[in-house]
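## tool: complex_structure
## caller: assistant
## args:
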Amino acid sequence: MVEIRTPITVDEAVERVMKYAFEGTKELISFHACDGRRLAEPIVATSNVPSFDKSPYDGFAIRSADTIQATKDTPVTFEVIEHIGAGTVPEKEIHLFQATRIMTGAQIPEGADCVEMFEKCVEYTRDGRSFITIDHSMEQGQNVIQTGSEVTDGDVLVEKGTYIDPGVKAVLATFGYAEVHVAKKPIVGVFATGTELLDIDEPLEPGKIRNSNAYMICSQIERAGADYKYYGALPDELDSSYEKMKDVLNEVDLLVTTGGVSVGDFDLIPEIYEKLGAEVLCNKIAQRPGSVTTVAHVNGQLLFGLSGNPSACYVGFELYTRPIIQHALMNPCVYALRSKAILADEYPKTNSFSRFVRTYVTLENGKLHVHLAGMDKSNVVSSLARTTSLMEIPPGDKGVQKGDEVEVLLLHVIERQETFR
Amino acid sequence: MVEIRTPITVDEAVERVMKYAFEGTKELISFHACDGRRLAEPIVATSNVPSFDKSPYDGFAIRSADTIQATKDTPVTFEVIEHIGAGTVPEKEIHLFQATRIMTGAQIPEGADCVEMFEKCVEYTRDGRSFITIDHSMEQGQNVIQTGSEVTDGDVLVEKGTYIDPGVKAVLATFGYAEVHVAKKPIVGVFATGTELLDIDEPLEPGKIRNSNAYMICSQIERAGADYKYYGALPDELDSSYEKMKDVLNEVDLLVTTGGVSVGDFDLIPEIYEKLGAEVLCNKIAQRPGSVTTVAHVNGQLLFGLSGNPSACYVGFELYTRPIIQHALMNPCVYALRSKAILADEYPKTNSFSRFVRTYVTLENGKLHVHLAGMDKSNVVSSLARTTSLMEIPPGDKGVQKGDEVEVLLLHVIERQETFR
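## result:
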């Protein structure tokens, strides 16, 4: 008996799944381990920057008032009373016609209100004392980086949810965040299904293939910023599969299976979901590949029944599972960045469903171009290795031509958008 | 005495540095640990894909010759003699008017040469035996995925140097690569310089700032795919700094310092390089920020003297150090992807040097737009947190306007280009 399923649109499927997006929790981790995580709290400035008036140059700190009369013909002389590097605090206050030799980044001494660069001063020594002359007038505050001119104590500098990259780390370090509140990585359980699966180190046998989907999904989970627990392959047997799946539900935040969602005689996932008391959110989506992608929930906990077909499995994860992970990671932009792009190849196939074609993008003169990653039979694994984007072709009775404008979802970039469309 | 240095162009500096690019070595690691590494050898198919004729559908495998006479009015009947799932090997050969019930991915039995989907057959049972009828003719090979039709044993599937992502892992798993030859991560030594530096967990003190550069650089090194060894801050004292730097040279592949390269009184890096017998490749580059970026080598080992200024340090690393790391990682595309983009903001500053402005990019209708990441004073750290690209403004007597076409270097994408221009 073949079950008839009514297909829903991709947008409808996304909406149904996202209703079960769950809030992530946060954890406090060492600054040194926070690369690639996401901020669970904004970075707030804990001091002014700079925290003192400082010099942008190597030069001499003086009182601008003393330079009012200075001209090429009548230069003004200053005695150099102190010599300080960055990190050394000036000890002497500057008075009339005195100067402090000062290095880039060093604190301006009391009394001084401007700095002139070495190159614009003439230095000389007399009787063991140091002097400079300046032949032009200076303004108050000239060449002085004022306290708080870059950042004011309490400013919000980086938003919650931001991916921690080298620039964010520089800000964290500047403000003394030795520990950082980051979004905890959700834990995604993974089962493969099917007795046809050999493990990666097993030799090929007649009728069998190696399990590539589960490892691909684990890698997609890691790329999305979550942790995975791989529980191996479920046998093609209902009761033991059900028991295994039920057992791990309390160890994971969400559960992914690959395979077993079609209407074949050994496709047990729908029955297992039923036995678990899960509510099915979708089991037929108007998309290729991956129309059989099945999503359900048990008491709000999401179960993703991805196709056993490698590219359908890949696409199903990116479209439906990844946004759930991003939400738990507090990333406000949960969806893949969608952009128009110019198709660099032919794609004459017609579709009755939306088609997500494995592609990669290039930038040419500032315009996005999209190229086919290879043969687009849904069972071809090798073109996945070139995939950095998915081209979405809406249902229609003609294909797309070279040079046509198409839509792509970018997978390998950090920047993403806030809404699905 | 102020030393006069003659500036060279950025292109010239890149060329001088890249002459000392070194070959990376490879190591064999577990498949399970290879995410984010780069292939040191191409992936070669170790079998045909599929390795047997298989079915793309749930259906019935039959002999096409038996359907020649089949029409709506005169359907042909087949007896179903076996029932196999994916991973189960067919045991019975198909003869005249026999069929095998077969699941998606399963091996086609001997004798059969086509498969018809469940939906297009009529099934019935009589006297405990199963039959189907088919009311149309089939072609030889119809709905059969032929052995080797996707991949032929020995095909090169993924090139050396490729970044290992989920798609590449799927290919590795398919062909049984339980261990993978990857490029060994080069080890980059890091020293900060300057007594003005406080560590991340120290409270602020007058005249001092926290060390953010070294940690930022460590994060940039990790993002580039290399390992770092952080040796702390060098004191502003020549001999001990020299000894420390000399000691670590045999522990690292290249060495990065932050700060100490200007012509200030406490800028010791040039003297240390001299004492080490290093040949200076550049010490003044016609760029802002980071004109003082100094690169030298001792017996071919590169020493990067980056500026102490946060954004100059950041830019210097991305322009000069990162390509060296990429080369060691066997990535043929060592440079940041350069693209034209439309400037979304004003940038009226004029330059006598090439300027690398901290920016971030967006895609709008398939066109790249570039936005200023914040104030572009080279001493402002917080805008680094928004930086995903560097806008390059060539030297000139006018700035650039909103809507102008400019060039950007993209930092946060995996795809890069092979040449600097």
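## assistant note: DSSP finds six helices and 24 strands in chain B. The first strand of chain B starts at residue 26 and ends at 30. Handing back to user.
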